[in-house]
Specification:
Layout (H helix, E strand, L loop, with lengths): L2 E9 L4 E10 L4 E5 L6 H9 L6 E2 L2 E2 L1 E8 L2 E2 L10 E5 L10 H8 L5 H14 L15 H14 L4 E5 L7 H18 L3 E5 L11 E3 L5
Parallel strand pairs: 3-10, 3-11, 8-9, 9-10
Antiparallel strand pairs: 1-2, 1-6, 4-5, 6-7
Helix pairs in contact: 2-4, 3-4, 4-5
Length: 216
Amino acid sequence: MTLAVHIHRLATRDHTLVQDLRFDVAAGHTLTLMGPSGSGKSSVLAAIAGTLHSVTEGSEALQFEGTVTLDGRDLTKQPTAQRGIGLLFQDDLLFAHMTVAENLLFAVPAGPKRERLAAVAQALDEAGLAGFGARDPATLSGGQRARVALMRALLARPKALLLDEPFSKLDAALRDQFRAFVFEHLRDSGVPAVLVTHDAADVADPALVVELGRAG
């Protein structure tokens, strides 16, 4: 499974954010997009996910010229829900009215109930949260919530995963631990991933880095 992105131009009406950008990400690998605020990092993720309609730069909607393909299938004109791409943000976005287990179960594709519950139990175990399923998300620490959010994203069985500064709101000790946890699970999941950050410590693979917003 390979994610291939070609951005000819990503722009507002009067300003080009990203131009002539190409990259491929193979299964189980993570490409890191780096750059300062305003360089277009998150807008590139929106172009891949097909959510540009909900992204603005100032008050202007963004325009995308290019292609996004996943395992050879052209997703460029596909709606977001049909792309099979998962998203993980710096905010964990757990459902406050659900337990931890219910949050995870929500993401598991339809199937026999026993298998879906087993998938949730396995995810909790892998996240080091066995026995936390009945807990309210509000009772978890920031690091625990972040792990639940990642496992929820992976339980949906995405064909690719996009991560928008997922470590930025964690303190230094948690950030290092969670970063290792994320990279291990991304490798094991076998899905291509694109991670946005401004911190060089967040780079998953030094050979897979694209820097945006650099002069020259």
